[in-house]
Design brief:
It is a single chain. By secondary structure, the chain is of the alpha+beta class. It contains two helices and six strands; from the N terminus they run βαββαβββ. The chain is globular, with a radius of gyration of 15 Å.
Length: 103
Amino acid sequence: MAGMVSPSSPAFTLQRVNAQRASGRDARWLANGDNGGMNIQLNGQSRQIPAASTLSTLLLQEGLAERRVAVEVNGEIVPRGLHGSHALHEGDRVEIVHALGGG
């Protein structure tokens, strides 16, 4: 298709999503009385998230639910179709990246 950038194209790069962007949202759920949080590593930074979070809820919290992103948990890529059922656990290492096109 014209205009599409393939992963093998030199103009295709992956960029880590900014994990600090949602710090205000973290404070909001803590202020609402949700004290059952857990700690994870999100793109190399320590984060506290609500207990019983899934990848889908994390992406929603990060404002990335509608974005095309790749997600890796503890070194394993989690397919998009499993984001809703993939539960996060204390100490998980989550990497979220999205593709950037251009030239």
